[in-house]
Amino acid sequence: MRPRVLWRPSAAAMTGTDMGRFATECSQRSGLDLDDYDKLWRWSVTDLAGFWSSVVDQFEVELGGDTDTVLTGDSMLNTRWFPGATVNYAQHALTDRFPDGALAIISESQMWGHAQLTRGELRRKVAQFQDSLRGLGLGRGDAVAAYLPNIPETIIAFLACAGLGIKWSSCAPEFGVKAVVDRLGQFQPKL
């Protein structure tokens, strides 16, 4: 028995969206017929290596190291994706491909209110936080933890750490004291 489809994108989703542009580009490069969502989905689950290589190419994911092997493993559970490659998430989030004035973060919180950060503001705040981390003598391989809610400052701290090769962990205040102590105690942060 096939599971019931809960949602299916409209035909318009294949024309004016990044997903549609991706399908068109992949069709042109590979000769595959990917003109509707079902065909794109089918390809994504039957040719994992081809699909994910195309995602990396289309969305200009900059991988370091060996990118020849896309996946290993005999099941989704045991699969390792791009096992010889590395990616710097902060590099992608802070790329200058987006103009300074473009929105990067929109946040709404009952406690903290509404906040917006542009790409330029985000880049500046991350750079300032990185300067502070360096000033404290922190760098690649160190660990930093925070007890923060999901607010823009948490993202700024995460990106600053990731950009410097610093391990990051955070706990939201609703975790409770015991859970926070257990989690961060195992992490052994330097800060």
What distinguishing features does this structure have?
alpha+beta; Rossmann fold; 2 domains; two-stranded antiparallel sheet; two-stranded antiparallel ribbon; 42% helix; globular
Description:
By secondary structure, this protein is of the alpha+beta class. The protein folds into two domains: 11-83, no CATH class; 93-187, Rossmann fold (3-Layer(aba) Sandwich). It has helices at residues 18-30, 37-46, 48-58, 89-93, 119-135, 152-164, 177-187, and strands spanning 63-65, 71-72, 80-81, 85-87, 103-109, 113-118, 143-147, 167-171. Strands 1-4 form a two-stranded antiparallel sheet. A hairpin with a 3-residue loop joins strand 5 (103-109) and strand 6. Helix 5 (119-135) crosses helix 6. The longest helix has 17 residues, at 119-135. The N and C termini lie far apart (52 Å).
List the topology elements.
Blueprint: H1 18-30, H2 37-46, H3 48-58, E1 63-65, E2 71-72, E3 80-81, E4 85-87, H4 89-93, E5 103-109, E6 113-118, H5 119-135, E7 143-147, H6 152-164, E8 167-171, H7 177-187
Parallel strand pairs: 7-8
Antiparallel strand pairs: 1-4, 2-3, 5-6
Helix pairs in contact: 2-3, 5-6
CATH topology of the largest domain: Rossmann fold
Structural classification: alpha+beta
- Overall number of structural domains: 2
Order of helices and strands: HHHEEEEHEEHEHEH
Radius of gyration: 20 Å
Strand order of the largest sheet: 1-4
Helix content: 40-55%
Overall geometric form: globular
Q: Give the rounded overall mean pLDDT.
A: 91
CATH class wording of the largest domain: Alpha Beta
Share of β-strand residues: 15-25%
Distance between the termini: 52 Å
Annotation field: number of helices: 7
Taking the sheet with the most strands, its summary is:
2 strands, antiparallel
Total number of beta strands: 8
